[in-house]
Amino acid sequence: MSTHVLRAAALAAAILPALAVAAPLSLDQALSLAVQRSEAARAARAGAASASEAARAAGQLPDPMLRAGVDNLPVTGGDRFSTTRDSMTMKRIGVSQEWLSADKRAARQAAAEATVGREAVQTQAAVADTRLQTALAYIDAFYAGEALKLTTLMEHHAHEELEAARARLSSTTGSSQEVLALTGARGVAGDESDEVRQQQSTANVSLQRWVGVRVEDLALTTLPALPSEQDYVASHPTVVAMQRDIEVARQNAAVASSERNANWTLEVSYGQRTGYSDVVSFGVSIPLQLARDQRQDRETASKLALVDKAEADLAEATRAATGEYRALTSDVLRLRERVDRYRSNVVTPAQQRTAAATAAYRSNQASLMTLFEARHAEVDAQRKLLTLQRDLAKAQVQLVFKPLNPGAMQ
To answer: What is the tens place of the pLDDT at every residue in 281-311?
Structure first.
């Protein structure tokens, strides 16, 4: 069974239970679907598999060389191009083998395994980024849906109040100005709903890009606890990748250093002569490293410079990750304070104003327009509160899902 079929079956198995019970899509389900269908994660896994296969061959000796030829073949005279008439002509066949020391093979093996480790980190980073982008899209879609519920309710209220104003006008207790004002207000409420509906559609399309299915009903649950600064920095994708880069650079430097000792090539051959005894030849080829300081030592120095570069990159990445964590935690703290203050200082008074306007209208002490304005102000306050809550959730999502999480690979 092909890999594509297996992935499709896994995806269907994850989707069908949710569809069968028509339950809202949870954040965990969305993350699972996104990871299963992520082509970026698939590409990273293929890269890791490639590095793993290459590592298996890294510590092996080079392939032996088969050598065949004819020595001392006449090219002039009556015996030209004959392999049997001249006693010096010899048909030869042999094999040669370049020999790498155990230390060299171990160094190459270690370098290949370091590359495997780096590719494994890239796989984890691809999964983490998929989960992060899915969570951000999920947050946008969820809060767009919540905002649409508010504007739809406001649109319903505007319609009810306009109908009531028309009824009052027909009974001579209302005024045409009130009807006209509420007609415009209903148009405004309808346009606000259309605007939010457009935002929700865009957010749902963005979410669908990750989970692969069209979802209208979402159920946001409590996000996991925020990591500490130490855990966040230690698991930051860039920091972990840079750590692997240092290891790769060090192992490559060790390979370059091992090249200061030349590789010997051993050869043995069998020669066949006409009229004389067959012969066996053997020998060894040794490269003459006449200028190590100009070649091998410079290669080693080049690789060591890359180690310094990787270490500097790691230090910079660590600083950047630390600054990122502190900025995000500052945003979370400030947004939490703003949410609490806005709820108590704006939303609660707006709700109280609506309750007072409703009571005044029922006792004929306030107009329908006054009631509409109070309700509209409350909806505006609720929408602003949703915006703050959305921004808070997105900041928390970045803190939670940006670090690598090996347990989320499947």
So the answer is: 999 999 988 888 888 889 999 999 999 999 9
Distances (CA, A) of 66 to 93, 95, 270, 280, 286: 8, 5, 12, 15, 19
Helix, strand counts (H, E) of the chain: 10, 6
Q: pTM of the full predicted structure?
A: 0.81
Q: How far apart are CA 103 and CA 255, in angstroms?
A: 9
CATH number of 26-56+107-260+292-408: 1.20.1600.10
In whole angstroms, what is the distance from residue 187 CA to residue 165 CA?
15
H-helix or E-strand spanning residue 266: strand 264-273
Q: For 29-45, give the DSSP string.
A: HHHHHHHHH-HHHHHHH
Given a cut of 70, whether residue 156 has pLDDT beyond it is: yes
Q: What is the mean pLDDT of residues 188-192?
A: 75
Identify the DSSP state of 326.
Answer: H
φ/ψ of residue 262, rounded to 5:
-70, 155
Whole-angstrom Cα Rg for the chain: 38
- Residue among 120, 69, 130 nearest 94 (CA): 69
Sequence-ordered list of residues with C-beta below 8 angstroms from that of 205, at least 6 positions apart, any chain: none
Q: How far apart are CA 81 and CA 74, in angstroms?
A: 5
Instruction: Tell me the longest C-alpha to C-alpha distance in the chain.
Output: 136
102-170 helix and 237-258 helix, angle to the nearest 10 degrees: 160
Write the CB contacts of 397 (distance below 8 Å, at least 6 apart in sequence).
132, 135, 136, 139, 223
Under DSSP, the state recorded for 407 is: G
Q: Is the torsion defined by CA of 327, 333, 338, 339 positive or negative?
A: positive
According to DSSP, the β-strands at 279-285 and 264-273 are antiparallel
